[in-house]
Amino acid sequence: MKKSFNIFYCLFLVTLLSSCSGYHFKKRSNPFKNYGIKHISVPMFINRTTIPNISGVFTYEYMKSISAFPEIRITSGAHSKADAIMLGILDSSNFAKSTIKRQSNVFIDGALAKSIGARQSFYLPSSVLYTLSLRIIIIRRPTKEEMELVSGDLGKYISQNSKIVFNEVFPITASVSKIIESSESVDEGGVVNFTRNQRVFNESIEDLAKSSANTFREVVLNAF
Prior knowledge:
Blueprint: H1 2-19, E1 39-42, E2 46-48, H2 55-67, E3 73-76, E4 84-91, H3 96-99, E5 100-107, H4 110-115, E6 123-140, H5 144-150, E7 164-177, H6 193-223
Parallel strand pairs: 1-3, 1-4, 2-4
Antiparallel strand pairs: 4-6, 5-6, 6-7
Helix pairs in contact: 2-6
């Protein structure tokens, strides 16, 4: 009787854990196996945003995300011998002010006012919100014309078919707080405000690429 109770209790725990949020046992070595995809090549993502030099880190993180599946071979570039090609298109509004919006401001007064010299005091953005999107397409053995079509403006309207096995848009939004310090002398932190803020922004892009790639991997796990 005790043995039967232990078996029942174990089965109950397995059922409970698998139904709770945050617990799942889904793990696939190759979610695209049914499509005959074992080799995926990944060309550099296309950057159509108003923010320069961000495609490299997204390409790297998405390649790393797919390479986590042990039965999938990943190569860079658009190889004709690959079973499929993964295309990434980063996009944003055509207007920089719509892509990067002020969230909060700081008024330039006190020590900061001395840093700007004889100019009239003004408000400086202390944190900004930037909004992008990333479309990921996985297409089997595409021709050059097909790649141009799916990566163009009409590509977002193309549904999945025998060649396109994945076509989804991921929203990307993040907030960045700026470093604002006075620069009355060469020894003060404000002398390198721009350099430090650029580093903060680059780090936020890297974190965003990682979280976006992880989301993509979870979507793939649940979609196939």
